[in-house]
Amino acid sequence: MIAIIAILAAILFPVFAQAKDAAKKAASISNVKQQALGAIMYAGDSDDVFCPMVEDNARANQGDGIDYDASWMLKLQPYAKSLRLFFSPNAKNQLDPALTGSRRSNGIITSYAMLPRWRYAYGADPGPSQMWRTGYGTALMDGIGGYQLDASISGPYYGGGSCSGATPAQKVVPSLSQSQIPRISETALILDAEGWDYGFLCTNLAPWPIDAAPPASAYSGVNFAGRYGYEGVQTVGAVPYKVGMGAVAFADGSVKALKTSKFFETFTTASGVKAFRYQYSGE
After folding, report:
1. Number of neighbouring beta carbons within 10 Å of residue 72
2. Are 53 and 142 in contact, with CB atoms under 8 Å apart?
3. Are 83 and 108 in contact (CB under 8 A)?
4. DSSP-assigned letter for residue 68
5. Rounded to two decimals, what is the model's pTM?
6. What is the mean pLDDT of each run of 10 residues along the chain (283 residues)?
């Protein structure tokens, strides 16, 4: 009898694990769907322009300022209503932000990311000679979220970090509007990640693109997290990726799960420039 139970357990446990993983993936897809709808409602109240990916404001730059103070997540709170929408079911840190006392962002910044615009890192709009290189290829990588800067701040924290030497003022760029995005149903807006800044702030050590700094840890590389149907860490072109499926919300509000390699798939635009398929390529 014990042997039979052991055999059944060996057969059923993987099935249960797969079912649990599928349920978490569905929950994450629901989360990013609601986040995207909140972002679209925000845009509806802001002349069709999406919320900034980061806002370098006075609160974030105080001595006890935290990442959450500057994040797109805070901007969407009035529309999302619930903090829990910003926590991936598979994220290890499920703690809400600590907004009093010893302030901390906690787990809210380790689940999802808003894809930022290229200019935030380089202080220039993207062009054929300006490419981010990932293990999956070299192509234009330009997102939707902009960077806002409070001009009264003498030493901005987020815009101050630099991969390129551009000044914070040069990095200021508004978020895109839906009407500015040619492939609105294909361009990623919000996605499964392990850091809200997607690695482009050039302030945090990791993760960020391979051409900004060499991989330093298991979390280096471009920060799209394949949290579901997880296949492990795969090194592609010297960049470690968590290979699996991740939830992606697009600029039209649609959502689907994409495999890591699919998200970084490249194509050639009508103007002859190579671009990552699920990012705004300016064609």
Report:
1. 29
2. no
3. yes
4. H
5. 0.86
6. 58 56 86 96 96 91 89 93 90 90 89 87 80 76 90 83 76 94 92 71 43 42 76 77 89 94 88 88 77
